[in-house]
Amino acid sequence: MLRPRSIRTRYTMMATALSLLFLVTIGVSVDLATRYRVEANAFEDTKAVASQWSAAVRNGSVPHTLPAMTRVNLIQIVDADGHVLQASKQAWNRPPISTVHPPSNDRFQNITSCEPGRGCVLLMAIRVTPAANSPVVYAGLPEPSILATCWLELGLFTCIVLILAFVAWITWTLVGRTLRPVETIRARMSEITGSDLSLRVPLPPGRDEIAMLARTANQTLDRLEIAVKQQRRFASDASHELRTPIAGLRVALEDAIAHPEDVDAQETLRTALSTTNRLEAIVSDLLVLARLRASDPEPPEPIDLGALAKEASTGRIDTVPVHVNATGDVRVSGCRSQLMRVMDNLLNNARRHADSSVEVTVGSENGQAVVSVTDDGAGIDPHDRERVFARFTRLDDARRRDPGGTGLGLAISREIVEAHGGTLKVEDSPRGARFVMRLGAMTDSGRPGNRL
C-alpha cells in the first residue's frame, strides 16, 4: 500500500477517514431511530382508531360507513369469514386490507401489509372478542414516504458528503497553514551552504513547536558558523605556522646537498633537529586542541588546587624557583589531567618571562576557587592581554626567550578553563605578568559553587 509522502495529505486523509467513520455511525443511528420513531407513531395512531371502533362494535353502534377523523383513513370491520361488514370511504372498494386474524390470546397485532400496485399499509388488527366468530377491526394508513422511499438515506448521504468535504477542506487548509513556516524553513535551509553560513531561517510568531524549531535551527547555525570560522582561521594559522619551519628546513637541507663543501653538516643536522622538535610541538598542541573540541569530557573528580599547584611546581630544579601559597582547602570538580596541563602551561610561561621567581597563590573568593600565577618579569602591555590567548600568537619577548615555542599553550589553557566553566585572564600586577584562573569551588555538599 502506497503511503502519501505529504504530511498535509496524510493528515487530511486521516481526518476525513475518521470523520467518515463517525458520520456513518451517526447517520445509520439517525436513520434507524427515525424509521423506528415514524413507524411507532403510525402504529400508535392506528391502535387508537382500531380500539375506538372495536369498542363501538361491542356496543352495537357502528354506522355503515365509518368516518375517518384522523390520518388513519383505512378502516374495515371484517367478520370471521373474511367479509367486509363496515368500512371507511377509502376502504370500501377494496378487499380486506389484511388476512391476518388475531388469535383469542393475542387480540392486538401490528401488521405491515403490502399489495402490488397499492403499496404498503401500516395497520392495527384487533379481535373484537375472544369468541370464535368474532369480527376483526383493521385500522391502517399508507406507509409514510419516509419509510417507503430512500429519501431519508439519500438526504443523510448528502449531508455526510458535504460534511466530509468541509472537514477535508478545513484540515487541508489548517495543516497547510501550520506547515507553511516549515516549508519556508526548508527552503531557507536549502540555500545555506558551507561557504555561506550567514543566512538564518525566518522566525514564525508565537512560541509553538515550529517557532522553537526555528529558534533551535538558528542557534545551531550560529554555533556552526562560529565553529566553521574558527576552523578556517585555525587551518589558516596552522598552515602558516607549519609552512615557515618546513620551508626553513627544506632550504637548509637543499643547501647542504647543493653545496656540501660550504655547509657544516653537524650544524645543519642540529638545525634540522631543532626545527623537527618545533614541528613536533606544534602538531602535539594541535592534537590537544582537536581533542578538547571533539572528544567527550572525562568524568569529573574532586581536585585540590593547592596540591595540584605544588605538584606542578616541583620536578624542575634548573629553572626559576616557584613559590606556592595555598590558603585553606580549595577544591574544584573537573578533569585532573587537563587542569594539570593548564597549571604546567601557566608555570612554564611564567618561568620563561620571570627574572628571578614565580609566585603562585591559591585561595577562594565569593564561592570561587582563584589561582594566580605571577612572575617578576617585564609584564604584558594592557592592549596585548587578550591577544596572548589567541592561537599562534607570540609576542616579541616570547620569541626572543623561547624561539621554539608554538604559541598555543595559553590558547589551550583558556579553552580548558572555559570548558570547566571558569575564566582565565591577565590582571593587573605591581610587577610582571599576573595570570588569574577562576573556577567554581566545591561546597561542603560536594557540588560546584558559583561559576563565571
From TrEMBL:
Its EC number is 2.7.13.3. InterPro entries: HAMP_dom, HATPase_C_sf, HATPase_dom, His_kinase_dom, HisK_dim/P_dom, HisK_dim/P_sf, Sig_transdc_His_kin-like_C, TCS_sensor_his_kinase. Keywords: Kinase, Membrane, Phosphoprotein, Transferase, Transmembrane, Transmembrane helix, Two-component regulatory system. It comes from the Bacteria. The keyword Nucleotidyltransferase does not apply. It holds the Pfam family HAMP. It catalyses: ATP + protein L-histidine = ADP + protein N-phospho-L-histidine. It is found in: Cell membrane. Residues 176-229 form the HAMP domain. The keyword Signal does not apply. GO terms for cellular component: plasma membrane. GO terms for molecular function: phosphorelay sensor kinase activity. The chain crosses the membrane at residues 154-175. Residues 237-443 form the Histidine kinase domain. PANTHER family: SENSOR HISTIDINE KINASE TRCS, SENSOR HISTIDINE KINASE YKOH. This is histidine kinase. It comes from Planotetraspora mira.
